[in-house]
Amino acid sequence: MPLSKTVVKTGMGQLALVDLPVPNPGPNQVVIRTTLSTICGSDIHILDEFPMPPGVPALPMGHEACGIVEEVGPGVTSVKPGNRVVVSCLASCGFCENCQRGMQAICQTYGAPSNLLFGAQGTFFTVNGAQLSLAPIPESLTDEQVIFAGDIMSTGLAAAENGGVSCGDVVAVFAQGPVGLCATAGARLRGAGLIIAVEGVPERVAVAKQLGADIVVQPAAAVDEIMEITRGRGVDVAIEALGSQTTFEACARVTRMGGTISSVGVYGAHPELTLPTTVNFWNRRIVTTLCPVGSDRLRRMMMLVEHGKIDLRPLFTHRMKLADALQAYELFKSRKEGVLKIALTP
């Protein structure tokens, strides 16, 4: 097996591109040869906010990828070498109590955070729980059409699903980064009557409208404008897709009595969240969502793509080679040049 050119974290906020050995797959593992990868907002949280695991000098990065099955380990029958696959960002066994309850994202066998896919920003990477953690890509679909099924598409749509968005609902989606844009698309799929997106970056505003936003308001005036648009009623569902105290608090201020805050933000840098004291938060619901994963979830996401219900390719604003991944990280973190997602290819 050749070496894998892989992006690794070497310390807080520090990255390197190194050659790593590719081990032979063990039980329920698969080795994938990467054909497309990308950088996720969660990668930035991992890079800048979470300490290195004890005794780990280099942490392989990346958890969104498509590829070709190179080698399968014992117990894997769902795919074979040569299959094109998309991979879930979290591994699951299918047998533990949580998996049997439909909560594969918090599989007890692999356990958080080690259930996160690592190394997908490399020429090869290994998938744990491979029997249930990846799915073959239909021949009619490209990698760019389906890669987001493994993470942000599933997460964004789940924000609308778990928020209980129903036909005719008024929905506000705070922040139109990649996950927020997927949540906007999810609200449209769920039949929302009015979708209000909160975003100030012109390029993101344009994509939000393309994916389903009816109105886009600026963050600084969002609460007042949303309350004016809803004639003081508030929204049925407010989706928090950034992971900050400011956006969480704004969601609380615009959610109607009996409504729901659906949060998919990552609050890694925040030791606590507080509700605004001026909001009497009676009879409202707060739900949080970790990306739904597993082969059936991947299949369902790709069905939506295959039959024209959703197209997330507009999220790809830049395309770069994996060899230039360190520069890609700098661009992604800067949020310059209208960057949303960067397609990384070998």
Describe the structure.
The protein is of the alpha/beta class and 346 residues long. The chain has 2 domains: 4-151 and 292-345, Medium-chain alcohol dehydrogenases, catalytic domain (Quinone Oxidoreductase, Chain A, domain 1, Alpha-Beta Complex), CATH 3.90.180.10; 156-288, Rossmann fold, CATH 3.40.50. Helices cover 26% and strands 25% of the residues. The chain contains 10 helices and 16 strands. It has helices spanning 41-49, 97-100, 143-146, 152-162, 178-189, 202-211, 222-229, 245-254, 295-306, 325-334; strands spanning 4-11, 14-20, 30-37, 59-60, 65-72, 84-87, 124-127, 134-136, 170-174, 194-198, 215-217, 235-240, 255-263, 285-288, 316-321, 341-345. It has a 6-stranded parallel sheet with strand order 11-10-9-12-13-14, sandwiched between helices. It has a 5-stranded antiparallel sheet with strand order 7-3-5-6-8. A 3-stranded antiparallel sheet has the order 2-1-4, with no helix packed on it. Strand 1 and strand 2 (14-20) form a beta hairpin. Helix 4 (152-162) packs across helix 5 (178-189) and helix 7 packs parallel to helix 8. The radius of gyration is 20 Å and the shape is globular. The model has no long low-confidence stretch (mean pLDDT 95).
Distance from first to last alpha carbon: 17 Å
CA-based gyration radius:
20 Å
Order of helices and strands: EEEHEEEHEEHHEHEHEHEHEEHEHE
How many DSSP H or I helices?
10
| Helical content band | 25-40%
Name the overall outline: globular
- Classified by CATH, the class of the largest domain is Alpha Beta
Task: Name the quaternary structure.
Answer: single chain
Number of domains: 2
- Just name the CATH architecture of the largest domain: Alpha-Beta Complex
Low-confidence stretches are: none
